[in-house]
Amino acid sequence: MSMKYKFMNNDDVSQRILICPGCGEQLTCADIEIFPACPFCNHRLEKNGELEDFILEPLVRRWINRYNTPFIVDSPPPVTFRADLRHGD
Ligand SMILES: [Zn+2]
User: Fold this and answer.
1) What distance in angstroms lies between residue 22's CA and the mean position of ligand 1's atoms?
2) Total structural domains in the chain?
3) Contact 24/18 with Cβ under 8 angstroms?
4) Neighbours of ion ligand 1 (CB under 5 A)
5) What's the CA-to-centroid distance between 63 and ligand 1, angstroms?
6) pLDDT in tens, 27-53
7) Residue 33 domain-assigned?
């Protein structure tokens, strides 16, 4: 697979920057996760494995971090009954 895209911060997946092939702007995965085009020049980003990794790796990394974190059980919010929701009687 040929390297189509240029990236910065490759050593930190969550801080990875994609260099737009059209205008050279620095894009984060949040910039293109909704629509795969450069928000600066509207360059349509061609889907390939690199681009998929760029989008997915931070997500996967977050998921793994969460998986490794001891599970914290939040106490459920107190249940409140509203008198006006009662029926009958
Ligand atoms: Zn661009």
Assistant:
1) 5
2) 1
3) no
4) 20, 22-23, 25, 38, 40-41, 43
5) 29
6) 999 999 888 999 999 999 999 999 999
7) yes
**What's the CA-to-centroid distance between 84 and ligand 1, angstroms?**
56
Q: What domain range includes position 40?
A: 6-68
Cβ contacts of 62 within 8 Å, gap of 6 or more: 14
Centroid of ligand 1 to alpha carbon of 26 (angstroms): 8
Asked whether 53 and 18 are in contact (CB, 8 A), the reply is no
Q: What is the pLDDT of residues 62-78, one digit of tens each?
A: 888 888 877 666 777 77
Residue type, 19: I
- Taking the C-alpha atoms of residue 36 and residue 44, their distance in angstroms, rounded to an integer, is 6
Cα 78 to averaged position of ligand 1 atoms, centre (Å): 50
